[in-house]
Automatic annotation (TrEMBL):
Highest taxon of the lineage: Bacteria
The PAS domain, residue ranges: 210-268
Entry keyword Membrane: no
Gene Ontology biological process: regulation of DNA-templated transcription
UniProt-recorded Gene Ontology molecular function terms: ATP binding
SUPFAM superfamilies the UniProt entry points to: P-loop containing nucleoside triphosphate hydrolases, PYP-like sensor domain (PAS domain)
Name of the molecule in the record: PAS domain-containing protein
Residues of the Sigma-54 factor interaction domain: 337-563
Source organism (scientific name): Bacillus mesophilus
Transmembrane segments: none
Keyword terms: ATP-binding, Nucleotide-binding
Length: 678
């Protein structure tokens, strides 16, 4: 028996193929299906045929081939369920460009998708002739891929729209096919609807689980989080921001922001601010809050985070206490470095400038000059002051132990290694500063490893096989002559230049002798002695002593004298032997061969006048010294001053320049004045 026939007419080759495949799948066992497309070419004439149009839009294209006796069915089309998964996988609120050939098919498709429950996506229509496409990343099209703008980075092809069940049932009726076939077709469509329903249900369940998880995450953070779409609808509103604004999340989510946020300044900042990113401080329900807002371009959303400033300060204090407990904090700042000598003031001035950089710094100076003090002060004066500060004495540990301390180790790296391994000092100093004291004492092997750290800003633990990036400023210190060590082959020249990108030389105490009285007073007070006096003769001898051990030796001397002195005054008898034994050698030159001119009032007057003039930033001429002396109880003539200046210069207390350079008081002269002014 000859099969009944159905003729399919479509506009494009792609549509013809897809719909022919669908009709053959459903009706191919019962009817003959013949198909044509305008794109591929139409037959010259059709007569006495049941003809199905792919869409009413092709009616004008095919009308000229429709002859006598033809019966026309215009298809109703629906989405191809096979490709629904790709749309369901898109996040809520995703903006997509929906692309098809004409406005009518675009509108029909979007309506169908929305009716199917795929309404979590924001669809933007696009078709032939539409000039401007919004700047989106994703496009969706039912097989019309060639129409998608080139600017789109991701295209989802949901396949050609298929003929729906009502059209299929119409075909069955027109061809008078068996009722059982209608039931089979209905069952097949029902199965597809059930499959789609299952997919939607599964997606909804997964979305609900994910939403609950995300809600717990968002509610668990310390900051408030609020997000709105461009229409002002609140999409995210966690419990923290609810406490700050005084509204529950259940009430806020889904509402317009105007009904939730009553603070007009905050409302304007979040929703109407021009900048993509900005922050501003507010007081909300007695919370001091920093609000940071930013625009998410592709999500078409505005997000604002609310940080409790008081809580942040409290957390910083807790962190600071933890760093102190672990010893990872710099104890000293520049105010801790006592003295007013020109040498010290100049060194502190340079050090403050060096603190403002991130470059490696090498601090050099004799033992006891305060290198670690300067390193600590530099850290506290830098942008890393809130980060950890770790100091390690490289001469205090054996090579292998120093290596594991600096770089850390992995579990099982050596006998006795801790389970789980251990972070090294470089890792622990991340975000802060590390001081490598006595850097001149490390071995050649460790020098090579340290060089790599400085080059790459990465470390590898002992026994490890991966590099760990670090963010650390490296300060090193030494009392050794590294240049000489390079010549001797005991220090790597390449490491030297890596360490000494910046350098700071700390002056020895003998070059800042005017600071000795202040330092002595500080050490006395630090030991709780507020009622102890020091004889001027003792201070004089302390100033004149050479202090090869620098400040450390001076401190030890003060502690010794506090321990042995009787009563409330430290005398020359309390000086330790090594200082008192040089008493004769250290006698002031004013008392040797100059008729004991220390007792001559005019010499004190001259030195004091020069000191006063120099402090004004100018050299002292004889005329200026004369004018300054007239203000004192011991006025002197210019001739007297000329004679006395010559003697003071011979004793090293002043430096007489030529012409306008005038006279300047020396460190020795200042030291003498300091002693006799105590």
């Amino acid at each position: 028996m000859r099969k009944k026939k159905l003729v399919l007419l479509a506009g494009s080759k792609e549509t013809r193929r897809a719909l022919t495949e669908q009709l053959n799948d459903i009706l191919g066992d019962f009817i003959e299906i013949e198909s044509f497309s305008s794109e591929e070419g139409l037959p010259s004439l059709l007569e006495n045929e049941l003809v199905i149009y792919s869409s009413y839009l092709i009616e004008n294209e095919v009308q000229h081939i429709i002859g006598d006796g033809c019966e026309i069915i215009i298809s109703r089309r629906t989405i191809n369920y096979r490709y629904i998964d790709q749309l369901l996988a898109l996040p809520y609120g995703t903006h997509v460009l929906y692309v098809n050939d004409v406005p009518e098919t675009v509108s029909e498709s979007i309506t169908t998708l929305m009716n199917l429950g795929i309404d979590h996506i924001v669809y933007h229509p696009y078709y032939i002739g539409k000039k401007d496409a919004p700047p989106l990343e994703i496009a969706v099209s039912p097989g019309e891929m060639e129409l998608v703008p080139r600017s789109i980075s991701k295209v989802i092809n949901i396949g050609v729209r298929l003929i729906d069940i009502t059209t299929i049932m119409t075909v069955l009726g027109k061809l008078q096919l068996p009722t059982e076939l209608g039931w089979a077709v209905s069952d097949k469509y029902t199965k597809r609807i059930i499959d789609l329903s299952r997919k939607l249900t599964k997606v909804n369940l997964e979305a609900n689980v994910l939403n609950r998880h995300l809600k717990k995450v968002v509610d668990g953070v310390n900051d408030g989080i609020l997000a709105v779409d461009l229409k002002g609808k609140i999409t995210v509103f966690n419990e923290v921001v609810g406490q700050m604004i005084g509204v529950s999340p259940d009430f806020a989510i889904g509402k317009h922001i105007n009904t939730v946020v009553k603070n007009q300044e905050l409302l304007h900042f979040i929703f109407n601010h021009k900048d993509d990113e900005d922050y501003l401080y507010f007081t909300l329900n007695q919370f001091n809050v920093m609000v940071y807002r930013f625009y998410m371009k592709f999500e078409h959303s505005i997000v604002a985070t609310f940080k409790n400033v008081d809580e942040t300060i409290k957390m910083e204090k807790v962190t600071r206490r933890e760093l102190v407990t672990k010893g990872y904090v710099a104890k000293y700042n520049f105010d801790s470095i006592i003295g007013h000598s020109a040498a010290l003031i100049g060194t502190k001035k340079v050090a403050k400038k060096l603190a403002k950089t991130e470059l490696p710094l090498l601090i050099q100076g004799e033992n006891g000059t305060g290198k670690e003090l300067f390193a600590s002060a530099i850290h506290n004066h830098s942008s890393r002051q809130n980060g950890p500060y770790l100091a390690v004495n490289c001469s205090a540990l054996p090579e292998d132990l120093l290596e594991s301390e600096l770089f850390g180790y992995e579990e099982g790296a050596f006998t006795g290694a801790k389970k789980g391994g251990k972070k090294g000092l470089f890792e622990q100093a991340d975000g802060g500063t590390i001081l490598l004291d006595e850097i001149g004492d490390i071995s050649i092997k460790l020098q090579a490893r340290l060089l790599r750290v400085l080059q790459e800003m990465e470390i590898r633990r002992v026994g490890g096989n991966k590099n760990i990036p670090i963010d650390v400023r490296v300060i090193s210190a030494t009392n050794k002559n590294l240049s000489r060590m390079i010549d001797d082959g005991t220090f790597r020249e390449d490491l030297y230049h890596r360490l000494k990108v910046l350098s700071l030389q700390i002056p020895p105490l003998r070059e800042r002798s005017t600071d000795i009285p202040l330092l002595a007073e500080m050490f006395i007070l630090q030991n709780g002695h507020t009622d102890i006096d020091v004889e001027p003769a003792v201070v004089k001898m302390l100033i004149q002593y050479k202090w090869n051990g620098n400040i450390r030796e001076l401190k030890n001397t003060i502690l010794y004298m506090l321990a042995v002195c009787d009563g409330k005054t430290i005398t020359v008898d309390d000086l330790p032997n090594e200082v008192s034994s040089k008493r004769e050698k250290a006698t002031n030159p004013f008392t040797q061969g100059k008729d004991n001119i220390l007792d001559k009032k005019d010499y004190y007057t001259i030195l004091d006048c020069i000191y006063t003039i120099n402090n004004k930033g100018v050299p002292a001429s004889r005329v200026k010294i004369t004018e300054e002396a007239e203000k004192t109880e011991n006025p002197l003539t210019e001739q007297q001053i000329r004679l006395r200046l010559k003697e003071l210069a011979e004793m090293g207390y002043v430096s007489i320049g030529r012409g306008r350079s005038g006279t300047k008081i020396t460190e020795e002269g200042i030291s003498y004045l300091s002693v006799n002014l105590l």
